[in-house]
Amino acid sequence: MLVLEFRVALTVEDFNRVVAFYRDGLGLDPGEIWTENGRGQIFSAGRATLEVLDPTHAAAVDQLEVGERVSGQIRFAFEVADVRAALDRALAYGSTLVHEPVLTPWNHLNARVQSPDGLQITLFQVVDAAH
Predict the structure, then answer these.
(1) Angle CA(52)–CA(58)–CA(60) in degrees, nearest 5?
(2) In the chain, % of residues over pLDDT 70
(3) 15-66 pLDDT per residue, tens
(4) 113, 98 in Cβ contact below 8 A?
């Protein structure tokens, strides 16, 4: 089987607030919108990657980024050019700070927020090892 696209579908109670968060807060590129039988909004989010983690590894990531196990079965992670600017923008659009940026052993600067609909999101910046 050849997979041509990977999508994640979120069902949310406050559609307008969550759309504004992903569009304006995280800067995702809005695409097609559906208005028949309710509403739906497509966003482009760059290249998709699926991470499958066992509970021990998921707990280790949470420990590094937050200091304790906090995320559920699904957590989003977005690579950004400037994690501090992305964090400020996400907070301005309704996310809740879970943890300030931390430098990981794999040389990423990771910050954790919770979206307005309660999803854990990691914002990460790849740090240039030369600096």
Answers:
(1) 140
(2) 98
(3) 999 999 999 999 999 999 999 989 999 999 888 888 899 999 999 999 999 9
(4) yes
Residue 97: other Cβ atoms inside 10 A: 12
Residue 55's contacts (CB-CB under 8 Å, 6 or more residues apart) are none
Query: How far, in Å, CA of 118 to CA of 2, rounded?
Result: 32
User: Is residue 72 packed enough to be buried (19+ CB in 10 Å), middle (13-18) or exposed (0-12)?
Assistant: exposed
Using DSSP's 3-state secondary structure scheme, residue 38 falls into coil
Q: Are 126 and 79 in contact (CB under 8 A)?
A: yes
Helix ranges (DSSP H) in 4-74: 15-20, 55-65
| Residue 118: DSSP 8-state | S
Domain ranges of the chain: 15-126
Contact between residue 75 and residue 122 where contact means Cβ atoms under 8 Å apart: yes
CATH number of this structure's domain 15-126: 3.10.180.10
Greatest Cα pair distance in the chain: 52
